[in-house]
Amino acid sequence: SHRRGPRADMVPEIAAAVGFVSGLLRTRGCVSEQQLQIFSGALREALTEHYKHHWFPEKPFKGSGYRCIRINQRMDPIISKAAGQIGLSLPQLFQLLPRELTLWVDPFEVSYRIGEDGSICVLYEATKPHPAASCHGGMLTCKNQMMLGRASPSKSYIMTVSS
Fold first, then answer.
1. Cα(13)–Cα(20) distance, integer angstroms
2. What is the mean pLDDT of each run of 10 residues along the chain (163 residues)?
3. 76 phi and psi, to 5 degrees?
4. What's the predicted TM-score (pTM) here?
5. C-alpha to C-alpha distance for 142 and 5, rounded to whole angstroms
6. DSSP readout, 78-128?
7. What is the pLDDT of residue 116?
8. In whole angstroms, what is the distance from residue 65 CA to residue 51 CA?
9. Sign of torsion over alpha carbons 59, 62, 66, 72
10. Are 57 and 51 in contact (CB under 8 A)?
11. What pLDDT does residue 79 have?
């Protein structure tokens, strides 16, 4: 199954997206490593299936909206389904993950934004269509950004608490 030419598989991009979401769950320490492994596997499979006919390396932004993973007062169904495999409920997910998260998974680039007006951080970038080894391609560039986003609850959250 080794195709030559430009890479048509989605492996590194999906790995970056899955690693990022798992990492967010891991930072809260409520989910065991074993659960995280099951979650990661389920999420990887779900995304691979979801993106199968919506991946165009020659036009990386085609289908971007379809591939985008989104949390905004509603949990992305793909995340909640994978979380269901390890028994995490929706309320638990909303506690563990940012209230507002957008994750763009496109050929050669995976990026995310926390909060509606947060800055966009790149998680994975394949500089050339043929990276020899991009083992550090998935490094988190914006750890502090994430912590900042965490520290200030969104307006709507403050409203619900005080009402």
1. 11
2. 59 97 90 96 98 95 96 96 96 94 97 92 79 42 42 44 46
3. -60, 130
4. 0.74
5. 32
6. HHHHHHHTTT--HHHHHHHS-SEEEEEEETTEEEEEESTTPPEEEEEE-SS
7. 82
8. 11
9. positive
10. no
11. 98
Q: Which two tokens stand for residue 93?
A: 């997910």
Mark residue 85 as left, alpha or beta (left: phi above 0; alpha: psi -120 to 50; beta: remaining).
Answer: alpha
Would you say 115 and 142 are in contact if contact means Cβ atoms under 8 Å apart? no
Nearest to 106 by CA among 138, 68, 70, 52: 68
pLDDT of residue 48: 97
- The single residue listed with the structure tokens 């998974």 is 105
Distance CA 102, CA 151 (A): 18
DSSP state of 74: S
Domains and CATH numbers, the chain: 10-125 (3.90.640.90)
Note the pLDDT of residue 143: 42
Tokens for 15, please give them: 């790995």
DSSP state of 142: -
The number of C-alpha atoms within 13 Å of 64 and in the hemisphere containing its C-beta is 14
